[in-house]
Design brief:
Elements (H helix, E strand, L loop, with lengths): L1 H21 L7 H4 L10 H10 L4 H6 L1
Length: 64
């Protein structure tokens, strides 16, 4: 029984290592995904300023 648990754990570790190698690129995004301080919320004035300043994405935001 004890070796079965150890075998399952080593299998899990092998799978975990396999996928961590494939998704290593996500380590570059760590500062953006797991921030210590969250980004400030946008006010209605900020949204209106963005809509006015961005000719491509502004009209899309305006329709939301």
């Amino acid at each position: 029984m004890a070796t079965e648990g150890a075998s399952e754990q080593s299998l899990f570790q092998g799978v975990k290592d396999f996928w961590s190698e494939r998704f290593r690129i996500l380590d570059s995004y760590h500062p953006y995904l797991r921030r210590e301080n969250p980004l400030p919320l946008w006010s209605a004035a900020d949204v209106q300023e963005f809509i006015a300043s961005d000719p491509v994405h502004g009209p899309v935001v305006c329709t939301l």
